[in-house]
Design goal:
87 residues; mainly alpha
Length: 87
C-alpha cells in the first residue's frame, strides 16, 4: 500500500475538514465493495490454482489414483479429494 500526501491529492477544504478528526496520522480509505478484487485476482494466482485443479480432475478422470495425484502435486489426500469432488 502506498501512502499519499492528502495536501497533494485532495482539495484544501477537504484536508481542513479531515484535520478536525486526524492530524499527523494515517487514514485507511477502503476500496468500494463493487470494485473490490477477490483473493488472487490481482496476482493471477487464483487463475493458476483453477488451472491446476482442472488438470487434477482431468487426470483423475483418466484413471490416475488420488494417491498418485497427491504425491505429484504435493497436496494432502484430503485436498485432492476436495478438488475432485468440488462442483
Amino acid at each position: 500500500m502506498k501512502y499519499l500526501n492528502a495536501q497533494v491529492i485532495l482539495p484544501e477544504a477537504l484536508v481542513e475538514e479531515l484535520q478536525t478528526y486526524v492530524q499527523g496520522g494515517y487514514i485507511y480509505v477502503p476500496v468500494k465493495q463493487e470494485q473490490q478484487k477477490h483473493w488472487g485476482e490481482v496476482s493471477g494466482y487464483r487463475q493458476e490454482l483453477d488451472q491446476r485443479n482442472q488438470q487434477i480432475k482431468a487426470e483423475y478422470q483418466r484413471g490416475i489414483s488420488m494417491e498418485c495425484l497427491s504425491e505429484k502435486y504435493c497436496l494432502s489426500l484430503y485436498a485432492v479429494r476436495k478438488i475432485i469432488y468440488q462442483k
